[in-house]
Design a protein that fits this description.
The structure holds two protein chains of two kinds. By secondary structure, chain A is an all-alpha fold. In chain A, 86% of the residues lie in helices and 0% in strands. The chains are: A mainly alpha, B mainly alpha.
Chain lengths: 220, 59
């Protein structure tokens, strides 16, 4: 009797996990598409760096202060679209710059980011490894990376900027493994917050890859 | 120093203040990974590094 109950619970848990993964990837695809549209609009409008920065900061503000209060209700859906739309719009000035220098860099960074995300998600989903041990490493690593970004804002050392970009790619790649594993093993049960985490990872990998390719492409 | 640099610096400081308690809690509460667990991270990261080197050679 107990074995039957365990088997029913286990199959229910598997169904819940599959539903969570499916909903997360559907919402992630839609938000990525939406942020692509807003980024395209931003490029067309030739938005200034200042407006791009303010748009990104408003998006981060929504992510920190509004999403945690709305992610357990349907109100979380427009909020996540607002966040991703604003962050996409904020990318406009950077994209305009790289498109004017060498358009192939943007396409390569986009394709590269997609391949990294699909590869890592596939790895985490197929191996079903538990990456929960990486939480502290990623969080502390991000703090160090943000500290280095702050320092380099005043120092302006190109090599440090590249090192930070490389570190962010490694940390965000780790976060994709961590978040995907959390969805599989029950550490993450909300598809809106899972989408937000994966979206931020993809965005950070894309911008860092763009920076690295721009520098090594000889045009930065 | 222009206003964008100041705004960026304020935003980065805010990020550190926002993330610090969470990072501290995560570092304290995360389970410790074995050597085998870490290899599960290092191997795909090596693949990511090689892939980025390939992308750099393409642009």
């Amino acid at each position: 009797m107990q074995m039957n109950t365990t088997a029913v619970r286990s199959s229910e848990a598997i169904l819940e996990t599959n539903k969570l993964i499916k909903n997360t990837y559907i919402l992630l695809s839609m938000t990525l598409l939406f942020s692509g549209v807003t980024a395209f609009i931003s490029v067309l409008m030739q938005v200034s760096q200042g407006i791009g920065l303010v748009s990104s900061l408003v998006g981060i503000g929504l992510l920190w202060f509004v999403l945690p209060r709305t992610q357990n209700s349907s109100a979380g859906i427009p909020v996540i679209f607002g966040i991703t739309g604003l962050l996409g719009f904020g990318l406009g000035p950077m994209l305009s710059y790289y498109l004017s220098v060498n358009p192939s860099i943007v396409m390569t960074a986009m394709g590269g980011t997609g391949a990294i995300f699909l590869g890592l998600s596939g790895y985490a989903l197929s191996t079903r490894k538990d990456f929960s041990f990486m939480g502290g490493f990623i969080a502390v690593g991000m703090l160090v990376a943000i500290g280095a970004m702050l320092l380099n804002l005043f120092l302006g050392i190109p090599a440090l900027a590249l090192a930070v970009s490389a570190a962010v790619i490694m940390l965000m790649s780790g976060f994709i493994l961590y978040q995907t594993s959390a969805m599989i093993h029950g550490g993450e049960t909300n598809y809106i917050s899972a989408t937000a985490g994966l979206f931020i990872s993809i965005l950070n990998i894309f911008t860092s890859l763009l920076h690295i390719l721009g520098a090594f492409g000889g045009d930065d | 120093m222009d206003w964008m640099k100041i705004l960026s610096a304020v935003a980065l400081i805010a990020m550190i203040i926002y993330l610090y308690p969470r990072a501290k809690a995560m570092a304290a509460n995360s389970p410790k990974g074995s050597m085998q667990d870490w290899m599960g991270y290092i191997v795909p990261m090596a693949a990511v590094i090689l892939f980025i080197i390939l992308l750099i050679s393409l642009v």
